[in-house]
Design goal:
alpha/beta; Rossmann fold
Amino acid sequence: MPIISIKDLHKSYGAEIIFDKLSLTLFRKEKVGLIGANGTGKTTLFKLFAGMETYDQGQIIKSKSLRIGYLPQEPLFDGLKTVIEEVHQGLELILKLQARINDVHHKIAAETGVELERAMKEYDRLCHEFEIAGGYDYESTVHSILAGVGLDQTFYDIKTSDLSGGQKSRLGLAKVLLEKTDMLLLDEPTNHLDLAGCQWLEKFIRNYEGAAVIVSHDRYLLDKIAEKIIVLKNKGVRVYKGNYSTYMETKDNVDLQQSRELEKKTVFVTHELDFIARNKNKEGMRGTALGRKKRLERLLKENPDYLKKADTESQVRFAFGDLKKQSRQVLTCENLSMAYGDLVLFKGLNLELQAGDRLGITGPNGTGKSTLLKLALGHIQPTTGTIKMGKTLEIGYLDQQARELDRQCTVLEEVMKVVPENSDKTSLRSRLGAFLFTGNDVFKKVGELSGGQQNRLILCKLVLKNPEVLVLDEPTNHLDIQTREVLENTLDDYSGTIIVVSHDRFFLDRIANQLLIIGADAFGNKCMGNFELITGSYSQYSELLLERQAAKQKEGEKAKKTAKDNLKRQEPKRSAPDDIKKFNKLKAEQVELEIEKLENRMTRLQDDFGREENYKDARKLADLHKQIDNTQAEIDLLYRAYEWKMGS
């Protein structure tokens, strides 16, 4: 059943048309990836779904009482509340119910007669609402979700004004996931999440009972959770079944088919024009030529896009040049350690990289990945041990903070730093055009550029420099999917050595042939000071984690079975007291089961005690009291028997 239906939607900002005759249907529980080039309206569509913007024409029909949770890329907070206060603000209903339940509970103890009956009815109603709202486990849910997005209890009492941009994004994500919603709209939810956070979010979304629409450049996430891909293009949408990889296969096939059809149409029109030109003045063929000319003109008039090529978006295009012979030894680490006071990032790291190696460095946030790059470049010194790069190597560095760029320089001035002084500016502007810096863009100040534009500028400088070693710190940050794919294809063809820090799992799969995981234990959990070197891709590392987790679970089950077997072999070594001798034939675990049964019975009896038809009937009430007393006595006896059998 649809939860949102859009019909012939038109939306514009002044003269700029964003959507024209857009139609789309979203269904309950489906997980959708929403993609499209920058400026195609992804955020606008989310705001229309959430009712935060209006549209000019068409319809948006939502199912009744649809509850939507929306995560913008940059969530805003007033800065006065702490992290835990901000999270609790989104749970006002539960907290109000909890406070009301406490009030009514105290009232019950003080009232009698009719007022007591009213209070007990209200108590039952409030408890039911509290349970439906998830009140009985909301605290554990809060802790679980905050931990999942990388905000542990050390963050709880920090004011939101003191959080970094990335921490605010993660807090915004936590708040949205804690809301009781039927549909999630998540705009780049994996921004600022480390590998563990991304894996946790994948699991959460897969288990989420409602629908989810996700705007993301994280193709690995879209592969794991999406069952449908919606592409915004040409002021409308195209819908593809399946995950991101399936979409790419389908798109490639469609593009190929369209290209072949266009080729056939072009051949047909060319053939017709040639026939008309050759025969329009020939005796006996003039009428035929004229007829074919009229048919061709009518075809092109009725189908103005008949020979139109499929619209292609402007795309970055670049390649590194051939490299001179490289030094064989690129990087050597010997017993390398780095610490800041008591905080140990890594200790005793040994590593060698040869020419042509491709090392991916990954792991949880704040564990020292960027620090290792700075050590390799000589920007900082290690606590102990040594780290050396080849002395004669030409190195290109992409810093995720773009600190290598001068914010006061223009784009053109910045690229001129890495080329000879007499370089032709026209040629340089052409090279910048390949990175989508066209026209007056080249005269913009670096400080005016977006994060994605700054990354493209650094890439342009690297291509012009053509280094033997690329040291890249989160190179895909701020880049759209198309540019990421171009970068991957370019690095595939690059013959030099690559050292890259990244959380982009799809990128790591394409580029790295070995991984250095920093700050994680053998199961991928954050563990400061740990490191592990893996030969292979990220997917192979992911499979290794699953194997380890399965082995750990198997060991746990084996240990549990051994403990049970040992328990079964235990026999009472002493003579039991007379009042518990009747339990001699039962094993300790059987006594546990009997206790559990009676405790469940006690819960039911206590529930019956609060029912109106019972507490108004004196006989029933007396009988319930008797049953509760007898059951409690039997439970106490069973606990004594259990303690005796366990040797207490």
